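Lab notebook, bench 4. Still working through the backlog of constructs that have no structural model yet. Next entry is a single chain of 222 residues. Request: give me the structure tokens for it.
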Amino acid sequence: MKKRAFKIISIALILTAVLNILAACADKDTDNSTLLEPYIKIISQLNTDIQSLESENNVIHQNYEDKISALQDEVEKLSDKLAQNSTTEDTTTPVTTVPEIEILPFEYVIANGEVTIIKYTGSYQIVIIPDSIENTPVTKIGSEAFDGTDIVSITLPSTVTYIDWFAFRSCSILTDIYIPASVTKISYGTFDGSTKVKIHCDSGSYAEKYAKSYALTYIINN
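Model written out:
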């Protein structure tokens, strides 16, 4: 394209020079036919070149228009194809249901169809022990299970029957423990060092008798 533009400019400059010469010759009274003859040939050739360039430019312009039209047709075809695919293909990602895994803050053992809590591993200060783990009843709080932990309140389920030695020893901020009437044995030193603890229990229960025998604060449930 740059070469063609340069050629057109060159022809225009030459034509301008020739026209200036013709104008100068026209002012003279002498016969200039012999002098003008070569310039007339040059003008004729230049006109031919200009027509050729114009024809070439028209062809190029038409080629570009044809290419642009062809590309537009391709874009329309692709758009139609995408639209059809979006309506006929199911692109929805299948939802995979992940089963929930219950993470308990306890270490425990299962033996003889019963669960024993042997160690608290959580950081919750308010703890509620479930009545069953792995579809097996929780019946025992093992020795030192909560020893030295920072629990504030703990509720035992009605399936628990036994609280072992030092289970709640040195729980310095433990203030409330809820012991059900199902508990029939609490071992020695269970609350040693837990000076703030209050035992919530039923009237006449083993937990009430234990609290009285060790001079622990207790509250009878309504």
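Notes after review: Residues 139 and 203 are 21 Å apart (CA to CA). Residues 2-68 form one domain. Flag for follow-up if needed.
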